[in-house]
User: Fold these one by one.
Assistant:
Number 1:
Amino acid sequence: MIPVYKPRDDIELALVESLLQAHEIPYFVHNRGFGGLYPGPQIDFYNVRTVMVPDSAVAAARDALAELRDPDAEAAPEPQAPHVSVWHKVRVVAETFLGGWFVPRR
């Protein structure tokens, strides 16, 4: 399975699913249920929903979803790791200990 699209919200996910179904392209939504369970920050491989298709249907899926993509964006840019300064690392550690992170407690 190859990831082809990461929708920003439920409406965009519904549009992607309906387009893939209309073109009879098999797909799988990684984190379909858990991704919408709790509000909060979106973390890759934790709660971000990702639409995946088989290797044989990647080209057809990208063609079908081309109209949903941002016309100003480049075609499939390579993800780059953001540069994190020492100050940001210290701030995250301090927020973790002082603020109890960002997850509400019972």
Number 2:
Amino acid sequence: MDLSYIKSVYLIGIGGIGMSALAQYFHNRGCRVAGYDRSPSITTKILTDKGIEVFFIESMAHIPSDVDLVIYTPAIPSTNIELSFAKKNIENVLKRSEVLQIISDEKFCIAIAGTHGKTTITSMISHIFNYNNIPVTAFIGGISKNLSNNLIDNEKAKIAIIEADEFDRSFLRLSPDIALVNAADADHLDVYNTHESMIAAYQEFINKAKKENRIVNADCNKYFNAEMTFGANESAKYRIESYYYENNLANIVLNIDGKQVNFNQLPIFGKHNIENFCAAYTLARKMNISDEQIENAMRTYEGVVRRFDIIFKNNDIAYIDDYAHHPAEIASLRNALAEVFPGKKVCAFFQPHLYSRTRDFMDELAAELSKFDEVYLLDIYPARELPIEGISSKVLADKISKNTKVIDKAEVTEKILASDANVFVTIGAGDIDQIINVIKEKLIDEYGKN
């Protein structure tokens, strides 16, 4: 499909992180862009601020009669009125992944995958390129704080940086020139059924790149047998030798084939993000970006919204928000909190994401959450799913080895103000982010500005 002929685009699920980047991509090319999402969000505000019309009620009437292309996300249920109408009446109806395939096929494609860390790695490598004035088109699965956006769109770009999503096997549509895999823990079992099936999809993804262009975290390289590896594992070719914090900034020593490379005073928090930086470094060196260029860029790196996002901090307390929704991500988050705030009491508010994920990882979630000093749960965020009998936040709460309660979002600030904890963290991939600013304002009222 030749996208240059597209003049009118409608996106169903336009507020999704990947969909909103596509909406902006077409808007930047002079297309008339509109779309539907079920509720306002940070991404829909980015779109409406640019003059893109967003509807929050399903209606076939929203789709322009002369629309050239309808794009939808697989997270949209098949019962959606607009999607049903489009599939029956519109010639060009494509999934988000199909459109990304068309865009990236025209460029040198760098695809970054993994059950954890891919958004941070994508944002880091995109920032390194952008800072050093290397033209790229980058689709990031989160809001880069440096950009206040999830898209870099340089029309001179011959390189596409794509966050490759494994949900619905979307990443298999890409044809990466360089493929990176950061983690391959079991996830999306509603799609893959088994961990083995998911691994097979990852293997198919990475094998699309030439052997010398496959980059893998050494911790999961047993599945891929790549020659170019990174991480803290002793076997890694690009290995994290050590790191320590000074004035809340990281000093990192990497070992590259026996040679030490030092990076000083980088704003990177937690071991998992040190590994993410190691991944971005490995990829940047593959693209012949120098150590000095990488360090200078990373000293100005501000991170990603909802990835160890320090919302409020003073001498008494800190409030962090994080997108973690898988047991391994929660473990990484908790370890990072212990590194950055050693010896502090931590109170966590977790919103489980998906009934199926809660069912599949019930015991693992309970085990990780029980390691916090104080825990509250919100009801499960269903996203695209209908309830599953016997699966609820109350069932998860009963498995946690503390007096864990299920509360409403409106009660979170009350619990924070009543707690004697030093560090508070909201966790989850659902709509828990809607209360971030409410919490921040209450803390400012109580303690003054950061």
